[in-house]
Design brief:
The protein is built from twelve helices and twelve strands. By secondary structure, it is α+β, with helices and mostly antiparallel strands. The strands form three sheets. A six-stranded antiparallel β-sheet has the order 4-1-6-11-8-9, with no helix packed on it. A hairpin with a 2-residue loop joins strand 8 and strand 9.
């Protein structure tokens, strides 16, 4: 029976060493996830990266999984750990484990950053994986993978006969979240004689009520809480910069939702304007408001200030600012304060903004139909 005891002891030893190894890997990853700015935890993180490197290829997937709970700083450390592991395998002439890494790339519950990292390393040893993986990523949670899938369809559409290219462009549109790609698609669809609503595709907010101007001479108005910041009453009338002011409806038909105050209303110099609208959600959800403007601004959602920036005429582009917001089921009030200064240069005359509602990939989320159960908009911004 001695041999049975020996075998049992050996099995126990293997199991214990496996558990110990797994614990060491988990501890190393937690150490990296805990790294803080200003070099706090840097020495421990460096030791953890070295410990993971000693484990070899079997640590590749655990490191990638660690991205799920990692801050951007910790993700950089984990990227370094993964790169070290993958580079060591390549230097030794060994291939990365393709099947588990491919499965990881396909897992949309994992970190988009980690999935992309694994994908790029896989392509180095097997470029054909691109044609196997990317076509299925048109609606992926990763904006980068979606871009690749759209690009592949655009190549196919450009090479296809004109009579058969339109369905390919329309399919590409369903996953497109980048302006340059949508511009290309829109031009092709319109050339083919079909319609496309870019505003709806991106989720731009086109219908607003605007009030002002209020005083921003010498740029003092940014920090002044004018009445719309404390109450939102559609029938209100206040003393403004040039006399009495009240809320007026205004909308934009611009493809990219630009509401040009200077052209639609007036380019009031040294002024503050407020714009308000509502967005209806079918449930509580975390989304993003994406804003573009060359002016100073503050933004409130349901009475809570979510972000602001006091900077004038730095430039503007779509999705210039990405603001995560928690929206409630029912009607959500969005209030924008937008400030123009008194500069007279030609390049300082822009007075406009664009705002859209989307998910983290940049895909639009539809404004739900209003119902009798929809909650009323917030009455104030306290």
């Amino acid at each position: 029976m001695l041999w049975k005891s020996v075998v049992a002891a050996a099995v126990t030893s293997v199991l214990l060493s496996t558990v110990t190894f797994a614990d060491e890997v988990a501890d190393a990853i937690k150490t990296i996830q805990s790294v803080q700015p200003a070099s706090k935890g840097t020495a421990d993180a460096r030791r953890a990266v070295s410990a993971l490197a000693r484990g070899g290829a079997k640590n590749l997937i655990p490191v990638l999984q660690g991205f799920r709970s990692a801050s951007p700083l910790a993700a950089n450390w984990l990227r370094n750990a993964f790169d070290n592991l993958a580079s060591a395998e390549a230097a030794a002439g060994r291939k990365l484990p393709e099947q588990p890494l491919t499965s990881f790339v396909r897992d949309t519950q994992e970190s988009p950053v980690a999935r992309r990292l694994a994908y790029e390393w896989l392509l180095k040893q097997n470029p054909e994986l691109k044609t196997q993986l990317i076509p299925g990523m048109l609606l992926d949670p990763s904006a980068e993978f979606r871009r690749d899938a759209v690009a592949m369809l655009l190549e196919q559409a450009a090479a296809a006969p004109e009579a058969t290219s339109l369905p390919l462009y329309q399919k590409a549109l369903s996953g497109a979240v980048h302006k340059d790609q949508v511009d290309t698609i829109a031009a092709a669809i319109r050339k083919a004689g079909s319609e496309i609503n870019i505003q709806n595709h991106f989720g731009f907010l086109a219908d607003w009520k605007v009030i002002g101007p209020f005083d921003n001479k010498e740029e003092k108005g940014f920090d002044v809480a004018y009445p719309p910041e404390t109450e939102l009453r559609e029938d209100a009338e206040y003393d403004g910069q040039l006399g009495k002011v009240s809320w007026k409806p205004v909308n934009t038909e611009d493809d990219y939702g630009i509401l040009d105050i200077a052209k639609k209303i007036q380019n009031y110099k040294g002024s503050v304007m407020y714009a308000s609208t509502t967005w209806t959600s079918d449930k509580d959800r975390q989304l993003e408001l994406r804003l573009g403007t060359p002016n100073a601004w503050k933004l409130w959602v349901n009475g809570k200030m979510v972000f602001g920036r006091e900077e004038y005429h730095r430039g503007t582009e779509m999705d210039q600012y990405k603001i995560p917001v928690q929206l409630k089921a029912g009607s959500n009030t969005i209030l924008l304060k937008i400030c123009q200064n008194e500069q007279t240069q030609d390049w300082a005359q822009s007075y406009h903004f664009q705002i859209r509602v989307c998910d983290a990939t940049g895909a639009a989320v539809s404004n739900a139909p209003k119902t009798a159960q929809t909650e009323p908009a917030a009455k104030g911004t306290n």
